[in-house]
Amino acid sequence: MADLIIRNARLLDLSAGELRDGASLRVEGERIVEVAESGRELTAPDGVQVIDAGGRTLMPGLIDAHVHAAITTMDLAAMGRRQASWVAIETKFILEGMLQRGFTTVRDAGGLDLGIMNALDRGLVKGPRIFRSGRVLSQTGGHGDSYPVAEHPQLCACNIRTNWFSHVADGVDAVRRAAREELKAGAHQVKVMAGGGVATPSDPIDMVQYTEAEIRAAVEEAAARRTYAFAHAYIPEAIERAVRAGVRSIEHGNLIDAGSAKAMAEAGCFLVPTLVTYDQIAEVGKALKFPPESQKKLGDVLHAGVGALEIARRAGVKIGFGTDLLGETHPQQSKEFVLRREVLSNLEILRSATSINAELLRKPDELGVLKPGAHADFLLVDGDPLADVGVLAGQGERLALIVRGGAIAKNAVA
After folding, report:
1. Helix, strand, coil share (%) of the chain residues, nearest 5
2. Lowest-confidence range among 298-312, 326-340, 344-358?
3. What pLDDT, in 10s, does the model give residues 57-79?
4. 110 Cβ contact list (under 8 Å, min separation 6)
5. Residue 185 gets which letter from DSSP?
6. Residue 149 has what pLDDT?
7. For position 398, which CATH number holds?
8. Which are the contacts of 107, defined by CB distance < 8 A and separation ≥ 6?
9. How many domains, in total, are found in the chain?
10. pLDDT at 217 over 90
11. 250 forms bridges with which residues in the sheet?
12. Taking the CA of residue 258 as centre, how many other CA atoms within 13 Å lie in the half-sphere pointing to its CB?
């Protein structure tokens, strides 16, 4: 990886919530090794590329903590029929689009296989750094059980059924085995479905899924590998059960109340809202053949997400940044910034997508920050995101430079 120096930038300090002129940054290999301010220019030895930022905003790369890059169409029935090679090629372009929107790191929330990770490592996919969850864990009839209702079900004593997206596992021992299988295959964390969802047909939104003991089994297995489990949940009862079992984050949480928010805050459990996915399902779901049964359930959560942000914020819950987009709607990823402005300040939104998500991923000194030792993941932005976070919306049109792990993914600096 070629070394690199950025000069004449406005440094976005998200900790202080301010922009400072005259900043420079030096990269060696994949890491930041020096950050200078007050107009002090860094020395550029022979062979080091120097980019004059021209006063643009220098900020950390963005982090999306809830993506489904391997769900490549909203027509979920068609998704189940697509060949793995077809899905892999579509996934490549979805991931590369994320990086071009400034997302240098993402957390897979289910469905991404090890082959994509290998392709990223070999440079065959020019996408973001990925924290992979692999298959999600779901109970029978839970959010993740996409099997149709059978007139004559053939029940197997093994208690686990597996498809490309999930392990449908019932009982503590089955959940433990399923979690171990994903961790063995290199999953960075484990996801459990603790309540009903929109995309699956047979589970109501207000359904509580998995017992506390089952969720705790996944938490314990993840902890044994020095990582964590996180949970999909909407309603207070499901949220509180998952929090008691020890999950690190609650995904979505649209129907959270003051009591469940308080429980999350006390446990140090993060919330990862995903407003844009409901916005997109409402806007284009029918045209893109999103399942009719799922469209009917959308109303339960569509308009609750913004209120959930306010409840969580008031309780002191750490709020991360996620999108949860499916298939053809992935290009709307950065609309999440705009949707949150109704409740959160620009600074709060920026922290969610950088330092808070980095803490959630247990990488607070390596991601979401610009300091020596951190991964060289950063952006040069035309505009001031503190004044208008909307400059990060769209397809990266206002991003003049994107660097991921010291490698330049985009350079439009004049």
Report:
1. 35, 25, 45
2. 298-312
3. 999 999 999 999 999 999 988 99
4. 68, 133, 134, 135, 136, 144, 165, 166, 191
5. T
6. 57
7. 2.30.40.10
8. 63, 64, 65, 66, 67, 130, 131, 133, 188, 189, 322, 357, 360, 361
9. 2
10. yes
11. 231, 271
12. 1
Question: What is the rounded CA–CA span in Å between residue 110 and residue 178?
Answer: 14
- The span from the CA of 36 to the CA of 8, in Å, is 10
> Which of 159, 195, 199, 188 minimizes the C-alpha distance to 79?
199
Among 122-131, 145-154, 245-254, 344-353, the range scoring the smallest mean pLDDT is 145-154
CA angle 266, 269, 61 (to 5 degrees): 135
What is the full DSSP assignment across 274-340? -HHHHHHHHHHTTTTT--HHHHHHGGGTTTTHHHHHHHHHHHT--B-------GGGGGGTTHHHHHG
Domain boundary among 323, 339, 360: 360
Q: Choose the weakest-confidence range: 88-102, 200-214, 326-340, 343-357.
A: 200-214
312 and 400 assigned to the same domain:
no
Predicted pLDDT at 155: 57
Report helix, strand or coil for 140: coil
**Sequence-separated (6 or more) residues with CB below 8 Å from residue 169:** 137, 138, 139, 159, 160, 175, 177, 178
Same domain, 101 and 17: no
In the three-class reduction of DSSP (H, G, I as helix; E, B as strand; rest coil), residue 66 is classed as: strand
- Looking at the structure, tell me whether residues 31 and 51 fall in a common domain: yes
- DSSP-assigned beta bridge partners for residue 68: none
pLDDT at residue 398 tops 50 = yes
Banded model confidence at residue 145, pLDDT cuts 50, 70, 90: low
Nearest Cα to 228, choosing from 187, 185, 266? 187
Q: Decide the pairing of beta strands 378-381 and 57-60.
A: antiparallel
Domain with residue 196: its CATH number is 3.20.20.140
Mean pLDDT across 154-165: 76
Q: Are residues 196 and 81 in the same domain?
A: yes
At 97, give phi and psi (nearest 5°): -65, -40
The boundaries of the domain holding residue 309 are 62-360
Number of H helices, E strands in the chain: 13, 18
146 shares its domain with 226:
yes
Res. 120: pLDDT tops 50: yes
Q: Is the domain of 82 the same as that of 205?
A: yes
* Strand 18-28 versus strand 229-233 pairing type: unpaired
> Same structural domain for residues 356 and 232?
yes
Region 88-106 average pLDDT? 98
Q: How far apart (Å, rounded) are the C-alpha atoms in residues 144 and 295?
A: 17
> Do 57 and 71 fall into the same domain?
no
